[in-house]
Amino acid sequence: MKVVVADDSRVMRQIVIRTLRQAGYDWWEIEEAENGADALARIQVSRPDFVLSDWNMPEMTGIELLRSLRQSGDETPFAFVTSEGSPQMRDQADEAGALFLIAKPFTADTFRETIDPFIA
Predict the structure, then answer these.
(1) How many Å apart are CA 63 and CA 68, to the nearest integer?
(2) CB 91 within 8 A of CB 6
(3) CATH code: domain of residue 54
(4) pLDDT per residue over 16-71, tens digit each?
(5) pLDDT digit string (tens) for 48-59?
């Protein structure tokens, strides 16, 4: 399974990837993107099976990325891993077509419990 992990913090990308591996997704082929614009370009080229994105990023935010994908007809499964998880953000994510939003801090168990229903 090809996955794009988008976050402007290299350290946070590594934490997300490490946590995914700990959650049992060590078979995923993960590509990193450093912001929403980078992620959009990578998604268009590599056609991943899943996208995990931060919300607040330079050049293009995660919600702008998701909206751009949906407006272009791209229905790649998309979710957020972000530092905020306010009800308003969750509503925006749902309305834009995100599968879920995981708020930091998170654990391998959180990832497994949240992601498994969507990939089973």
Answers:
(1) 8
(2) no
(3) 3.40.50.2300
(4) 999 999 999 999 999 999 999 999 999 999 999 999 999 999 999 999 999 999 99
(5) 999 999 999 999
Tokens of 69: 């994908």
Token pair 């994105």: residue:
53
Own/partner pairs, 8-16, CB within 8 angstroms, 24+ separation: 8/34, 8/35, 8/54, 8/56, 8/57, 8/58, 9/54, 10/34, 12/54, 16/52, 16/81
Helix axes of 36-46 and 62-71: crossing angle, nearest 10 degrees: 40
Identify residue 105 by its one-letter amino acid code: P
> What is the residue range of 55's domain?
2-119
Pairing of strands 29-33, 50-53: unpaired
Number of compact structural domains in the chain: 1
